[in-house]
Amino acid sequence: MKHDSQILVLVTALLVLLGATTIRAQQAGIPAWAARVGWEQQPQMPDVQQQSSADPILQLNLSAEQREKIRTIREQTKAERAANNERLRETNQALEAALDADNPDEGAVEQRLRDVAAAQSAAMRMRILTEVRIRRVLTLEQLGILRTLRQQARDSRRNRMLDNSNGQRQQDNGSRNQNQRNGIAPLFPRRALQRRQRP
Length: 199
Known about the structure:
This protein has helices at residues 2-27, 32-36, 48-54, 56-59, 64-100, 106-137, 140-175, 189-197. The protein is an all-alpha fold. It has one domain (2-149). It is flat.
């Protein structure tokens, strides 16, 4: 029973992290499918060639009709996305409050976890359905470009994560004292105590 609740907590925490990135992107006015390919609104650059390489949306070469259809799809789902995001924010706050209690009630925490999972599920469902509708607007060539851009964004994120973890490891190794195994405690704490107790 305890193991099951721990698994539930871990799965929910993962879903919270995934939902938070979607919410951040949607609050910034970036379509969720565009956020996953690494697109963010950037200032206008004078050279069209530079602009198309810097902005994945321009690489899709959308027609005016496609842009209008995508804009319409986004407008149709805007209110529901906002409601889902608000619900997710509220359920996350309720979960945090339940966890921050002096004596957290396990039943209340599990209920808050279920609420967060349901809110994340609704937000993900809306995001996926919106993406499906948008994909229907794209041509086969544009879908191929989108797949390539998404793969490049995944590779870029993976490389950044590896770089960050390698940098953190180097920083951790450099900051340890000679007699410390993890930077927190001496390797042989009893010996240190014995040395201090000697007259």
